[in-house]
Amino acid sequence: MADVQQRNITKVLIANRGEIAMRVIRACRDLGIGTVAVYSDVDRTALHVRYADEAVHIGAPQPRESYLRMDKIIEAARRTGADAIHPGYGFLAENAEFAQQVTDEGITFIGPGPDAIRAMGDKQSAREAVKRNNVPLIPGTEAGLHDDEVIAAAEGIGFPVMVKAVAGGGGKGMRIVNDAASLPAALKSARSEAESAFGNGDIYIEKMLVGARHIEFQILADMHGNTIHVGERECSIQRRNQKLVEEAPSVFMDPELRERMGKMAIAAAESVNYVNAGTIECLVDKDKNFYFLEMNTRLQVEHPVTELVHGIDLAKEQIRIARGRPMTYTSSFLRPKGWAIECRINAEDPYNNFIPSVGKITAFSSPKGPGVRVDSGVYSNYEITPYYDSMIAKLITTGDTRQEALLRMRRALDEFVIMGVKHNIPFHINLMNSVSFIAGQFDTRWVEERFNMGNYESDPTDEDLEIAAIAATLHAHRRRQLAAQVVAPAARDTSNWKWLSRWERIRR
């Protein structure tokens, strides 16, 4: 490993948009590296275009015409002289072919090698790879089985089971099946959805762990043989397999479990000779048995909570590793300092089945103050379009304890002003007031099965509703009183300062 060739990086093209593009631009600025943004027709006035040193137009709004066009992005790098490409997350971030083409062009890909992406991108090959390093797996089948073989295997595994697509992620091609009668229909719909989304209709099944938590470990590995973990993130607050809230550390973790899972995560990464930043996702049952779920070969949306409790800049470490230099840290992070919570603020209506909301953001004022971080790519008059994901911002709060981070999150959510589109801040406010969430008693199914926007986990009584109505009326009345004191003309015929001067002269 001593002969690793180090390379210089002077200009990075960010093959992405939104908040992650802004995040990478800021990391590059901190390192004195130039940046190039790419943008579609509807992103011409986007924040990442304004902040980058250069910007290149790459096509129509549809991702397949712009952000998924490898040829246009690589051509943009050639034209601007960018010597590295950072893919962010989503779009081409976990596309092995893109990583290969970038490398073949002599451009540095800031991420893992194509072989590692390819191995971990296919869930079945990932299971085979990590199994060689004794990483525990959830009982399941191989891919490529006929439906009758899958049904027979499910009987042996026991219901409920999870039908999963071999390719892709984000919950697409995934079905929970509780009994044998429902399995044929679930297999058919999952295959169809996977084929449509990823061009690969292969599926397999896994045992569904009831009451399990989703806990993941951040990994860093360099070209000098160092692989470490940077602690865990709790990601159990999900809806339809989409994460909504993440925190670090996990309330479920203890030092012994952290050490065991950390060693497992390192073994999983080393099974494919992984280099750069990645995440090992696991399910952990109530008895603290853990199982490998998958590896995400990129920077995660929720990476800020790890950064804040461990004092590390993961985006800068990615660039450092891509340069061929040893990582800043060569020991795993075993003791988080404080607590961090992240809420994903999305343009969607939590009172209407979280349906996405599009339109212009007419007012945008983000919270500030101690322990508050906001990562965003929007501003007032920014247009939320139907072409991309609905994320408006990531709101992250920190504190010495979970209670302090949680109280700051309540304060920050209350200060956050977003007008013009519907958003899920009311969901987060309800969540932060939930007794179960405060107590850390939840699992991956909790939001869908035991939480709703109409109440705090139980229906209110008539007396509760009456008290709430009285309190709301008194609060509104009090606010009007305070507003009147500020804006109403004084009862006297002059200002307070003149009145005070007269009063003092009279007393002399």
From TrEMBL:
<dbReference type="InterPro" id="IPR005481">
    <property type="entry name" value="BC-like_N"/>
</dbReference>
<dbReference type="GO" id="GO:0004075">
    <property type="term" value="F:biotin carboxylase activity"/>
</dbReference>
<dbReference type="InterPro" id="IPR011054">
    <property type="entry name" value="Rudment_hybrid_motif"/>
</dbReference>
<keyword id="KW-0092">Biotin</keyword>
<dbReference type="GO" id="GO:2001295">
    <property type="term" value="P:malonyl-CoA biosynthetic process"/>
</dbReference>
<keyword id="KW-0276">Fatty acid metabolism</keyword>
<feature type="domain" description="ATP-grasp">
    <location>
        <begin position="127"/>
        <end position="323"/>
    </location>
</feature>
<keyword id="KW-0547">Nucleotide-binding</keyword>
<dbReference type="InterPro" id="IPR016185">
    <property type="entry name" value="PreATP-grasp_dom_sf"/>
</dbReference>
<comment type="function">
    <text>This protein is a component of the acetyl coenzyme A carboxylase complex; first, biotin carboxylase catalyzes the carboxylation of the carrier protein and then the transcarboxylase transfers the carboxyl group to form malonyl-CoA.</text>
</comment>
<comment type="pathway">
    <text>Lipid metabolism; malonyl-CoA biosynthesis; malonyl-CoA from acetyl-CoA: step 1/1.</text>
</comment>
<comment type="subunit">
    <text>Acetyl-CoA carboxylase is a heterohexamer of biotin carboxyl carrier protein, biotin carboxylase and the two subunits of carboxyl transferase in a 2:2 complex.</text>
</comment>
<keyword id="KW-0275">Fatty acid biosynthesis</keyword>
<dbReference type="GO" id="GO:0046872">
    <property type="term" value="F:metal ion binding"/>
</dbReference>
<keyword id="KW-0460">Magnesium</keyword>
<dbReference type="Pfam" id="PF02785">
    <property type="entry name" value="Biotin_carb_C"/>
</dbReference>
<dbReference type="InterPro" id="IPR011761">
    <property type="entry name" value="ATP-grasp"/>
</dbReference>
<keyword id="KW-0479">Metal-binding</keyword>
<keyword id="KW-0436">Ligase</keyword>
<dbReference type="InterPro" id="IPR005479">
    <property type="entry name" value="CPAse_ATP-bd"/>
</dbReference>
<dbReference type="InterPro" id="IPR051602">
    <property type="entry name" value="ACC_Biotin_Carboxylase"/>
</dbReference>
<keyword id="KW-0444">Lipid biosynthesis</keyword>
<feature type="domain" description="Biotin carboxylation">
    <location>
        <begin position="8"/>
        <end position="452"/>
    </location>
</feature>
<protein>
    <recommendedName>
        <fullName>Biotin carboxylase</fullName>
        <ecNumber>6.3.4.14</ecNumber>
    </recommendedName>
</protein>
<dbReference type="Pfam" id="PF00289">
    <property type="entry name" value="Biotin_carb_N"/>
</dbReference>
<dbReference type="GO" id="GO:0005524">
    <property type="term" value="F:ATP binding"/>
</dbReference>
<keyword id="KW-0067">ATP-binding</keyword>
<dbReference type="GO" id="GO:0006633">
    <property type="term" value="P:fatty acid biosynthetic process"/>
</dbReference>
<dbReference type="InterPro" id="IPR004549">
    <property type="entry name" value="Acetyl_CoA_COase_biotin_COase"/>
</dbReference>
<dbReference type="InterPro" id="IPR005482">
    <property type="entry name" value="Biotin_COase_C"/>
</dbReference>
<dbReference type="Pfam" id="PF02786">
    <property type="entry name" value="CPSase_L_D2"/>
</dbReference>
<keyword id="KW-0443">Lipid metabolism</keyword>
<dbReference type="InterPro" id="IPR011764">
    <property type="entry name" value="Biotin_carboxylation_dom"/>
</dbReference>
